[in-house]
From TrEMBL:
<dbReference type="InterPro" id="IPR027417">
    <property type="entry name" value="P-loop_NTPase"/>
</dbReference>
<dbReference type="InterPro" id="IPR011990">
    <property type="entry name" value="TPR-like_helical_dom_sf"/>
</dbReference>
<dbReference type="GO" id="GO:0003677">
    <property type="term" value="F:DNA binding"/>
</dbReference>
<dbReference type="GO" id="GO:0005524">
    <property type="term" value="F:ATP binding"/>
</dbReference>
<dbReference type="InterPro" id="IPR036388">
    <property type="entry name" value="WH-like_DNA-bd_sf"/>
</dbReference>
<dbReference type="GO" id="GO:0004016">
    <property type="term" value="F:adenylate cyclase activity"/>
</dbReference>
<dbReference type="Pfam" id="PF00196">
    <property type="entry name" value="GerE"/>
</dbReference>
<dbReference type="InterPro" id="IPR000792">
    <property type="entry name" value="Tscrpt_reg_LuxR_C"/>
</dbReference>
<dbReference type="InterPro" id="IPR016032">
    <property type="entry name" value="Sig_transdc_resp-reg_C-effctor"/>
</dbReference>
<dbReference type="GO" id="GO:0006355">
    <property type="term" value="P:regulation of DNA-templated transcription"/>
</dbReference>
<dbReference type="GO" id="GO:0005737">
    <property type="term" value="C:cytoplasm"/>
</dbReference>
<dbReference type="InterPro" id="IPR041664">
    <property type="entry name" value="AAA_16"/>
</dbReference>
<keyword id="KW-0067">ATP-binding</keyword>
<protein>
    <submittedName>
        <fullName>SARP family transcriptional regulator</fullName>
    </submittedName>
</protein>
<dbReference type="Pfam" id="PF13191">
    <property type="entry name" value="AAA_16"/>
</dbReference>
<keyword id="KW-0547">Nucleotide-binding</keyword>
<feature type="domain" description="HTH luxR-type">
    <location>
        <begin position="873"/>
        <end position="938"/>
    </location>
</feature>
Length: 938
C-alpha cells in the first residue's frame, strides 16, 4: 500500500521531523532503526510520517506502507503483507513468487499438523531480509492499535534485526484502545530505538496553523474559538474549514481573520460535529454511496461499492467525484477516506441494526462477484450472530480456504453457524467437521466438538478423521491410555476408508512405541500397521509407522536400525510438501541418531537440511525441535556460543515439554563451565522437577541431571553431586543412551570414595544392551580407566573422542589421564596430558574447568598458574569467538545472513544472533562498521 495522497503541512513538529529524517539518513547509509509515534486521533501522526519519510525513495530506499483498521485484528498478517505489497496483483515478479509460495503454504491438511500462519510469518520475514540484502528498506505501519496480533508479533521480531540490517521500522498508533501485544512491541522498540509522543500544539503553533487556514492572522475571537480545539491539528482544520464554508470568517479593519457576528458563535461540541458539517454539503446519493463504502474498510474500489448498491459502476462516477471535490475521499487506484474519523462518523451515523443488515448484504454481493473468502468473511463478522441459509451454504463451500488463510475468523464464523444448527440439519455435518479441524489447527480444545460430530455423523471417513484428531490431541497431552482407547474404538468401526484406517493404525503404532514396556509387542503392532499403510499407499501413514519403528529401535539403543527406518521414511517423503511436519520430525530424529553414532558432520548436515526445508522452502516456524538437537551437537563439539545462539533463537517459539529439559540443561551446563553460577542456578531452579511416566519421556533429562550434579560439585557438595548422578542408574533410564554421562558418574563417585556407585556405573556401561558402537566402547574404557587408574584405557578413549570430534569429552578425558599420571608420580607426562584439556577449556571460556583442573594436579607438585589462559575481553576484536570471527569475515564480504547460514550450516536466525553479538562487541551500528573492523584486522 502506498502512503496515499499528500496530507496537510506539518506545523510545530520540527524536532520530531528532524529525528525522522535523521533515521532515514541512517538507514540509507546502512544503519537500521526503529521509531514509534504515539498520539491521539488527529494529532498529526500520519502527516509527520508522510513528510518525514517522503524523501525515502529519492535516497535509494525501498518503502512499504500500510494502514490498519478495526477489522485488521481478525485477519492474521494482513498488515505486514499489505506493507510488503505481497499480493497476486503485484507487478513485481519477486513478490509474485512469494505470493505463490504463501499460497502453497495454505494447501496443507490437518494431518500435516503445520501452522500456515507461522509459516507465513517466517516466509514474510525471510522476504524482508532478502529485500534488505538488495538495499535499504523502510517499512511504515500506521494505526498499529488496530493491527492483527500476528503482524504485531512479526513487527516485534523485526525490531530485533535492525541492528544488523539496513531496515527502518516506523509505526504510529493511538494510546487507546490499550493492547498487551502493542505494549510488548513498544517495550521492544523503545529498548532499540525511539518513541515520539505527539502532544497538543502549543499556542504559537496553533496561531500559525489557523492563520494559514484562514488566509490571515486570527483575530481575538477566532483565536479564542480555536483554543477549544485543544491543540489538535485535525480538529483545527475541520473547525476552520467549517467556518469558511459557512462564510463565518471575514477580514476585520486590521486585516485579521475574524469571526462574523460577534462572539456568540461556538465551536462544534465534538470533532464528529465538525466532520458532519463537511458531510452535510454532500448530495443524498453521495452520502448513501459513502456509507456503503465505510463497510468495506479504509480503502475500497468503486466496483465493490457498485456491487453492494447493485448499480453499474459508471453511475457512481459522479457521486465519488463530488465526494473527492468535498475533501472526503482521496483518489487513487483504490479510493480511501481522507481521514479515518470521517469514515467513523459516517459508519456510526447508521443504526446498529441497519449496519448489520448492510454487512450481511455486502457479504452476499461480494461473494457473487467472486471476491475472496477473507473479504466476504470480513462482512459476515460484523453482520451479527444470526446466520441464515445463504451464510451457512457459503461457509460450507469455502471453509477449507478460509481455515487456511484466516483460521481465527473461520473458527468464529463456524462456531456461530454450528451453534445455531441442530445436528442433522443441512450443512451441519460439514460445518461441524470444519470447526473441529480449525480448532485443532489453532491448538484449541476440540475434544467436545469432535465427540459431538462422532455422536451424530454417519460418514465413516469423517468419523475416522474426528477420531484421528481426538487421538492426536490426547497423545500430545500425554494421555496415552485415552488416545489408545479412541483409536482402538475407531479401528473397530465398519466401512472405515482405507486411508483413514491406515492412519489410525499408524497412530496406534505411535502410541505403543512411546508408552509400552514390551518392545516386541510394540514392534509387531508397528510392523502390521506398516503393512496396512503400504497397502493403502498413504505416505503419511507409512511415514508415521516408520517413525514408530525408529522409536522402538531408539528404545533398544540400536541407532543403526533407527537410522535405517528414518532414511526410508525420508526417501518416501522426499518431494512431499503436504506432510511437512512429519518430514521435519524425521530429519530431527535423524540428526540425533547420527550424533549418537558420532557421525557429527552428517548430523549437522541433516539439521541444515531441516532448516533449509523449514526456513527457505516452507517458512515453518516450529524450529524448537531442531534448535535443541543442534545445541546438543554444538555442545559436544565445543561450539558453545553456537549452542547458546541456537537456543536463543528458539526463545520466541513455543516450547516443547520434551525439549525443555535439554534447553535448560545445556544452558545451565555452559553457564556452570564458564563460572557463571548465578545463571546456571537460576536456569535449574526455574525448571520444575517433573518425573515423567514413560521410558521414552525420560530420555531428554540427561543434560538437566548433569547440570544439577555440576552445580553441586562446583559449590563444594560432592556427596550431593553423586546423589544427583545416581538418578541415571535407576532402571527407568535403562533405555536411555547413557553411556555418555556414565564416566562422569564414576568420576564423581571415586572423588568421595564411593566405590559401590563407581562399580555399578561401570558395570551398567559394560552391560549396555545395545550394539557395541565405538562411542560406547570408548565410554567403557573411560569408566574402567577411572575405576582402575589405568592410563592406557584413558589414552585410547581420548584418541577416539578426539578423532570423533567430541571436544568436551576429549578434554575431560585428558584431564582424567593427567590426574591418574600425577598420582603415579609421572609429573611430566601428567603435564603433557593436561595441556590439551587446558587449551580446550581456554577456547571454550570454561573458567571453572580451568580452575578445577589446575587445582586437581596442584597437590602433586604440578603448577599450571600463569600458563592458563585469561578471560576473553568483553569488547573489541579479541572478544569474538571463533564462529563470530568467521561470520564477521563473511559479513565483510557482503554476504547476507541467509547466505552465511547456508555457508556455515546454521539457521539464519542463529547467524542473526551472532551478528548482533558482533555489533555489541565492536560497539558498532551497522554491518559497514563490521566490515571496517575486519579490514582493520586483516
Amino acid at each position: 500500500m502506498s502512503p496515499g495522497p499528500e496530507p496537510a503541512t506539518v506545523v510545530g513538529r520540527g524536532s520530531e521531523m528532524e529525528l525522522l529524517r535523521s533515521t532515514l539518513t541512517g538507514v540509507a547509509s546502512g544503519r537500521g532503526g526503529v521509531v514509534l509515534v504515539e498520539g491521539e486521533p488527529g494529532i498529526g501522526k500520519s502527516a509527520l510520517l508522510y513528510h518525514g519519510l517522503v524523501e525515502a525513495a529519492g535516497m535509494g530506499c525501498e518503502i512499504g506502507w500500510s494502514v490498519a483498521d478495526e477489522l485488521s485484528p481478525r485477519f492474521p498478517l494482513r498488515l505486514l503483507l499489505d506493507c510488503l505489497e505481497i499480493e497476486s496483483r503485484s507487478a513485481d515478479p519477486h513478490r509474485l513468487d512469494v505470493t505463490a509460495i504463501l499460497r502453497h503454504h495454505l494447501s496443507g491438511t490437518v494431518a500435516s499438523g503445520g501452522d500456515p500462519m507461522a509459516a507465513l510469518v517466517d516466509e514474510a520475514l525471510t522476504f524482508v531480509e532478502k529485500l534488505c540484502a538488495d538495499g535499504p528498506l523502510v517499512l511504515v505501519a500506521d494505526d498499529l492499535q488496530w493491527a492483527d496480533e500476528t503482524s504485531l508479533l512479526a513487527w516485534q521480531r523485526l525490531t530485533r534485526t535492525v541492528e544488523h540490517l539496513p531496515l527502518l521500522l516506523v509505526g504510529a498508533y493511538r494510546p487507546v484502545p490499550h493492547r498487551a501485544e502493542l505494549d510488548r512491541l513498544r517495550a521492544e522498540a523503545v529498548s532499540r530505538g525511539t518513541l515520539i509522543r505527539l502532544g497538543p500544539l502549543p499556542e504559537p503553533m496553533v496561531a500559525e496553523l489557523v492563520a494559514g487556514l484562514a488566509g490571515a492572522p486570527a483575530g481575538p475571537r477566532l483565536r479564542s474559538l480555536s483554543a477549544h480545539a485543544g491543540g489538535n491539528p485535525l480538529y483545527l482544520r475541520e473547525l476552520v474549514d467549517a467556518l469558511v464554508r459557512e462564510a463565518a470568517i471575514a477580514a476585520d479593519a486590521a486585516g485579521r481573520a475574524e469571526l462574523v457576528g460577534g462572539s456568540t458563535r461556538r465551536a462544534p461540541a465534538t470533532l464528529a460535529a465538525a466532520i458532519a458539517g463537511r458531510l452535510g454539503f454532500l448530495s443524498p446519493g453521495a452520502t448513501t454511496a459513502l456509507r456503503v463504502a465505510t463497510l468495506l474498510g479504509p480503502e475500497f474500489s468503486l466496483d465493490d461499492v457498485a456491487a453492494v448498491l447493485q448499480q453499474p459502476p459508471r453511475d457512481l462516477d459522479g457521486v465519488f467525484a463530488e465526494a473527492t471535490a468535498a475533501g472526503v475521499i482521496t483518489p487513487g487506484i483504490r479510493l480511501s477516506f481522507r481521514h479515518p474519523l470521517i469514515r467513523q462518523a459516517l459508519y456510526e451515523e447508521m443504526p446498529g441494526v441497519v449496519r448489520s443488515a448492510l454487512h450481511r448484504h455486502a457479504a452476499e454481493a461480494l461473494a457473487a462477484t467472486g471476491a475472496g473468502a477473507e473479504r466476504v468473511a470480513a462482512q459476515l463478522l460484523p453482520a451479527g450472530p444470526a446466520v441464515d441459509g445463504w451464510a451457512t451454504g457459503w461457509l460450507a463451500r469455502t471453509a477449507p480456504q478460509l481455515i487456511d488463510r484466516a483460521p481465527t475468523v473461520a473458527a468464529e464464523l463456524l462456531d456461530r453457524a454450528v451453534g445455531q444448527l441442530l445436528p442433522g440439519a443441512p450443512h451441519w455435518e460439514v460445518l461441524a467437521g470444519a470447526l473441529v479441524r480449525v480448532l485443532f489447527r489453532l491448538g484449541r480444545d476440540a475434544e467436545a466438538r469432535a465427540r459431538q460430530v462422532l455422536a451424530h455423523t454417519g460418514d465413516p471417513a469423517l468419523a475416522a478423521e474426528m477420531r484421528w484428531i481426538l487421538g492426536e490431541r490426547l497423545l500430545r497431552a500425554g494421555g496415552y491410555g485415552d488416545a489408545r482407547r479412541v483409536v482402538e474404538h475407531g479401528l473397530r468401526q465398519p466401512h472405515v476408508p482405507a486411508v483413514w484406517r491406515a492412519r489410525l493404525e499408524a497412530m496406534s503404532a505411535r502410541i505403543h512405541s512411546t508408552s509400552v514396556d514390551d518392545l516386541d509387542e510394540a514392534e509387531a503392532i508397528a510392523a502390521a500397521s506398516l503393512a496396512s499403510a503400504t497397502a493403502s499407499g498413504d505416505r503419511l501413514a507409512i511415514g508415521y509407522c516408520l517413525l514408530s519403528l525408529s522409536t522402538i529401535a531408539l528404545m533398544r539403543r540400536d541407532q543403526e536400525t533407527r537410522l535405517g527406518h528414518l532414511d526410508r521414511a525420508l526417501e518416501l517423503l522426499a518431494d512431499d510438501m503436504e506432510h511437512l511436519e512429519l518430514r521435519l520430525l524425521l530429519l530431527g530424529n535423524r540428526a540425533l541418531a547420527l550424533s549418537i553414532l558420532d557421525r557429527l558432520a552428517e548430523s549437522e548436515r541433516s539439521l541444515a537440511d531441516a532448516r533449509d526445508l523449514a526456513e527457505r522452502r516452507a517458512g515453518y516456524a516450529g524450529l524448537a525441535r531442531f534448535h535443541a538437537p543442534a545445541s546438543v551437537v554444538h555442545f559436544w563439539t565445543g561450539r558453545w556460543d553456537d549452542a547458546l545462539s541456537e537456543l536463543e533463537t528458539a526463545g520466541d517459539l513455543p516450547e516443547s515439554p520434551r525439549l525443555a529439559p535439554i534447553a535448560v540443561g545445556v544452558r545451565a551446563l555452559i553457564a556452570c563451565h564458564r563460572d557463571d553460577r548465578a545463571t546456571a542456578s537460576a536456569r535449574v531452579e526455574a525448571y520444575p522437577d517433573q518425573h515423567t511416566s514413560t521410558a521414552f519421556d525420560v530420555a531428554n533429562r540427561g543434560f538437566l541431571i548433569a547440570a544439577r550434579a555440576m552445580l553441586a560439585e562446583r559449590d563444594g557438595r560432592p556427596e550431593d553431586a553423586v546423589l544427583q548422578w545416581r538418578e541415571l542408574l535407576e532402571p527407568r533410564y535403562a533405555r536411555m543412551e547413557r553411556h555418555t554421562p556414565l564416566p562422569d558418574v564414576v568420576r564423581a563417585a571415586m572423588a568421595i570414595g564411593d566405590l559401590d556407585t563407581a562399580r555399578q556405573a561401570t558395570e551398567l556401561c559394560e552391560r549396555d544392551p545395545g550394539p557395541a558402537i565405538p562411542g560406547r566402547v570408548a565410554a567403557v574404557e573411560r569408566c574402567l580407566g577411572l575405576l582402575t587408574g589405568d592410563p592406557d584405557l584413558l589414552t585410547r578413549a581420548g584418541r577416539y573422542l578426539h578423532a570423533a570430534g567430541r571436544t568436551v569429552e576429549y578434554a575431560r578425558t585428558c584431564e582424567d589421564l593427567a590426574l591418574v599420571l600425577a598420582r603415579r608420580g609421572e609429573r611430566q607426562a601428567a603435564k603433557c596430558a593436561l595441556a590439551p584439556a587446558m587449551e580446550v577449556y581456554a577456547g571454550l571460556g570454561a573458567q571453572w574447568d580451568l580452575r578445577r583442573a589446575a587445582a586437581s594436579v596442584r597437590p602433586y607438585g604440578i603448577r599450571w598458574g600463569a600458563r592458563g589462559p585469561r578471560r576473553r575481553p568483553t569488547y573489541g576484536w579479541a572478544a569474538l569467538s571463533p564462529t563470530e570471527v568467521t561470520i564477521a569475515g563473511l559479513v565483510a564480504q557482503g554476504l547476507s545472513n541467509p547466505d552465511i547460514a547456508a555457508e556455515l550450516l546454521l539457521s539464519p536466525r542463529t547467524v542473526q544472533s551472532h551478528v548482533s553479538n558482533i555489533l555489541v562487541k565492536f560497539k558498532a551500528r551497522s554491518r559497514v562498521d563490521i566490515a571496517r573492523e575486519v579490514l582493520r584486522h586483516g
